[in-house]
Amino acid sequence: MRFGLVLLGATALLSACGGESKVKPAELESFVATAELSPLWRGSTGKTDDFVFTPAVVANSVFAAGHNGTIVRYDEGREVWRVSLDEKLSGGVGSDGQLIAVGTPKGEVLAFDADTGKALWRARVSSEVLAAPSVGEGLVVVRSGDSQITGLDAKDGKRRWVFQRSTPTLTLRSNVGVLLGQTVVVAGLPDGKLVAINNQNGAVIWEVAVALPKGATELERVVDLTSLPVVREREICAAAFQGRVACFDIATGNQLWGRDISSSAGIDMDERRVYVTDDTGSVHAFARETGASGWKQDKLFMRAPTRPIALGRRVAVADFQGVVHLLDAETGAFVARATTDGSAIRADPQRLADGFVVQTRDGGIFALQPR
Fold it and tell me: How far apart are CA 247 and CA 350, in angstroms?
């Protein structure tokens, strides 16, 4: 739903749950489990419909929302409060533990008190909000469907700055937001660029190309960054659709290494490796320092696995049938598997202190612990 021509056909190819695919997804193969994915707790919120809602985790609290206007807070699985709005939602949830923020298809941002669920303020941005707002440092930073990034004051929702670039004619419909740090906002752009913005005034600090458009047609030249970059110490890594995975020095923007691989689902990183889910459904591991290939798990072909999440000796991804897969971080082999409610998991899994949480298309909230 970006302004201009939106590339919907590509997203259908990327996601086996987003309409019929001409390529049959892989059937799950049996394996000898050497670990467990134990349920911690289960909750629910409204269905997501065609939108992607990502839970927000702050300390021991999980905030979640659904398209029907439901917002809920869980503390270690115990429901603290639930709000039912008389309007539809399209993006959420963002929180810093004091304030939570969600977005609407009408381009409004709604803020609530994290302790009570009480409505605080609402503000309007340039177009529909597909991504979870980022909250912190006295700001609510919102990326709207036309890729405009707006910094709102967390106290009252007043606009403090706007960052806007022209977008290519053809782009992917994406729910990607931004990373908000102490002094910068980092965002991927539809033209394959990664940009660091001063979070006080919206000025550009540095800008780098993760991928450059190639090919003769507009379709071939789409290189959107449709997933969040990941930061660890002085490194930031990002992935582009029909492009590359690349890592940079976060202070200067200098590239450390890059690999040609197409990813719209996203990446994660631990002390030794960068993990990437590519657009065929394969999960890759690359050496963090050099980008050298480590392993490739290709048994999830066209099952639309999510961004991988690094969990110590394990890596977790979830797929279009609501199945959660646990991989060995050293080899990529399957070590455990768990089912949820059978509906697609499209949002990024989120870390908990003792595991991680996923949200399904049918509104199920599942907290799991690797053992």
Answer: 22
Q: How many CA atoms lie within 13 A of 261 on its CB side?
A: 29
Residue 190 pLDDT greater than 60, yes or no: yes
Residue burial 201-214, b: 16+ Cβ < 10 Å; e: rest? ebeebbebbbbebe
Domains of the chain in start order, with CATH, are 1-50+263-371 (2.130.10.10), 53-174 (2.40.128.630)
Q: Which two tokens stand for residue 41?
A: 């707790």
The angle formed by the CA atoms of residues 68, 347 and 60, to the nearest 5 degrees, is: 85
List the one residue out of 252, 349, 325, 329 whose CA is nearest residue 288. Answer: 329
pLDDT averaged over every residue in the chain: 91
279-303 per-position pLDDT tens digit: 999 999 999 999 999 999 999 999 9
User: Environment class of residue 171 by beta-carbon count within 10 Å: exposed (0-12), middle (13-18) or buried (19+)?
Assistant: buried
Q: With contact defined as beta carbons under 8 Å apart, do 288 and 335 qualify?
A: no
User: Does residue 229 sit in helix, strand or coil?
Assistant: coil
What confidence score (pLDDT) does residue 169 get? 67
pTM confidence score: 0.91
Distance, CA of 11 to CA of 23 (rounded, Å)? 14
Tokens 């979070």 — which residue? 199
pLDDT at residue number 170: 65
Query: Is the pLDDT score of 219 beyond 90?
Result: no
C-alpha 280: how far from chain center: 18
pLDDT digits 0-9 by tens, 75-94: 999 999 999 999 999 999 99
Closest CA to 269 of 253, 251, 245, 252: 245
Cα(238)–Cα(246) distance, rounded to whole angstroms?
A: 6
Helix, strand, coil in percent for the chain, rounding step 5:
0, 45, 55
